[in-house]
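Replying to the earlier thread about multi-chain prediction with a worked example.

Input:
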Amino acid sequence: MIFSRKTDYGLRALMYLAERRARGPVTLSEIAEKLMIPKAFLSKILQQLAKKGVVRSLKGPSGGFVLAVEPAEVTLQEILTEIDGPTRVFECFATESDCTLYGDCLMRDVFGEVEDQIGKVLARYTLADFRYTDKLPAKA
Amino acid sequence: MIFSRKTDYGLRALMYLAERRARGPVTLSEIAEKLMIPKAFLSKILQQLAKKGVVRSLKGPSGGFVLAVEPAEVTLQEILTEIDGPTRVFECFATESDCTLYGDCLMRDVFGEVEDQIGKVLARYTLADFRYTDKLPAKA
DNA sequence: CTGAACAGGACCAATGTAGTCCGCTATTTC
DNA sequence: GAAATAGCGGACTACATTGGTCCTGTTCAG
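Result:
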């Protein structure tokens, strides 16, 4: 799996915040409860996103978290990178001297290409493309 | 990291076998030593590839492993899938009833797209595109 | 000042990855 | 048909990462 549970939690929390950002700060407890995410764990994730400037955190009563960016301005790629770090596809485990391709390692190129493609797809979507829907659809 | 050390070992071993497949079976020990891969571990990987039909294994003296396919006929995608299983990009950790997108989850589409792109790149390369070079380049 | 709410460090459990060990089985060669 | 050779395969271990908890501290509105 490329993306972790942490990423999933983070993404959903951001979607939730995007939907409410007009209504002032949302508390950790509310997000955790609504999205069924362990509170203490979500806390870490939001702390991390706060440090990167994606959300802003307000302490004290009537505090909470607010989205600090325009939903349409932040791409999935940025979000995922900020939560999980850059998506590394492949690590070469041969040392230079025992590398069977040493000199012109085509593998490097292939996996670089893979990374580029992943980045391209993720950069095409922003937070604004995903809508938090509070309840289940009317019924299918 | 998407691809594991196991994948790296497996790929290199296959490259080695591709280069020697005219010269009969190559023993586990030889591959392990030349490529600096722990023997017992490589054994597992080759066993796995043997079950999938990518290599053939011969027991007894003068036995070993032979590549069972045409290098140009087997894509990186097939090899990687056989070693590590299919590359899953994302697992949705929300249950249906607490999914904030339930109904038409765009996320699924995005990550499906990512998987497709990865597959496309990997399917463009075959074992024949990579050459095992026994020694270091003449010097740069 | 008090209680709501986030910050952050320490800690813990489960999982997956990487790797080892060893007895078993098959095959070849003499 | 015995050795010797080589892969098979199950059980086991070590380590890192992930997912998650807990507790103490800090900030701030009312």
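The helical segments of chain A are 5-20, 28-35, 39-51, 76-84, 106-123.

Feel free to reuse this layout for your own posts.
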